Amino acid sequence: MAVSISLPVSGHDWQRSIQALVLLTALGFMASLTPLIAARRLDGLSGTACSLMTLLGLCSSLGARQPQWGLVELSLAVGLCLAALAFSVARVTLSEEGDRALLLFLVLLCAIKTFQFLVVGLDVFMTAPAVLDTDRLIAGFSNKRFYGQFQTFTLPLLTLPLLLSHAQRSTRVLVFSLLALWWLICITGGTRGSWLGMGAAACVLFIAGHSGKRWIAWQLLAVALGITLYWLLFNVLTGYLGIEVTNAASDRLTTSLSGRGPLWQQAWDMIRERPWLGFGPMHFADIHNPIAAHPHQAILQWACEWGIPSTLLVMWLVGRGLWATFRLVRERADSNDPVDLLRVCLFASLIGALTQSMVDGVIVMPYSQLWLSLVVGWLMGIHVWKSEPAKPNALIHWSWMGISTAAVLFLVYVVIRDVPHLEERNKLYQQQYGGHLQPRFWAQGVIAIKPD
């Protein structure tokens, strides 16, 4: 019997519950700070944009068919922004000690998941089954695409020790081996969005200067070794043992949209019907379809649920942050300072994730949402500001803290309210609609109520 190693928080619902606890911790951390420390991570324009987005989200939620679910999604967005600010302040407080702690956490986490993959793979090959389903090797997430999202965030960051000039040779060998194995797992999972995201990151870093090209060189070496290992394991070794491989990576080398076409059409129709405030946050899931509870495209999702004005604000905010970071990466392209090299890796991680969000649910899955907050927050924490932000206004600070407190506590309430009844909720969905579960806030994320 194959060995199955899975963390207790591996399922979507458990990850959502843990996410609520993380946001509650971030709230406590930010509440313990003085207004001066807590408010200096955003300039006036960005703060105004966030405030307008929150106001538009509130109006959209209150006008939605199910306001409570709209407020849940709005609260989640506010909580994730709070988490990003908390990570930013933590980086400023801990300085380079925080960078080392982040790197150690990342390496240990990827090493644990790699060990899990190797143990399960060894057990499978020892039993020598007639048919090997590669999906059996990808454990810890309810869908292997969610694993791919996690790897899109972490593959760029694992390159950091290889870029550091002071890293020992033995450390580089170990980290490079881990990076190659991490690529092996990514190839085995066959998530095309990860390849798209990493390709986009490589293209951006290629024009970002010397440090970006060094990052690309290490990634190309690791992916080449990862592909070689995959070929040896799932072509040479399986052929020698007479094992048939199903769900192979080569089966995913297609240009099909994998059912996204109808989802994007539904989102587009929703945008045309309600362009200003949308149908309400989370309300793509209020119109049932047999495929998914979100459109697998971040811009379409935000536009059809929150409205076009809010979408333009988000795009402006994201573009402004990316441009500021890109300029800083280019200005310091020849620097060997660990902070500047960390910025390169974080920037690649963010570019990869945002690119993948154009074809996948990066902004929907709880684990990916937390990683997005971490990467954005850490980039803010190491950003070199052209000028010191204005002295924070106490009224604005405490108003923001009040909104954040209400949002996070509401999320905690929803988790406590729903967790005991999730199994019942899943059964009701199966009775009404049948088919597979469609993740959104919960693993069964459809909020549409079938009329009697």
TrEMBL record:
Residues annotated as transmembrane: 20-38, 69-90, 102-126, 146-164, 173-190, 220-243, 365-385, 397-416
Protein topology in the membrane: Multi-pass membrane protein
A Pfam family the protein falls into: Wzy_C
Protein's name according to its UniProt entry: O-antigen ligase family protein
This protein's UniProt keywords: Ligase, Membrane, Transmembrane, Transmembrane helix
Annotated O-antigen ligase-related domain residues: 179-314
Highest taxon, organism lineage: Bacteria
Localization (cell): Membrane
One GO cellular component term noted in the UniProt record for this chain: membrane
InterPro entries: O-antigen_ligase-rel_domated (IPR007016), WaaL-like (IPR051533)
A GO term, aspect molecular function: ligase activity
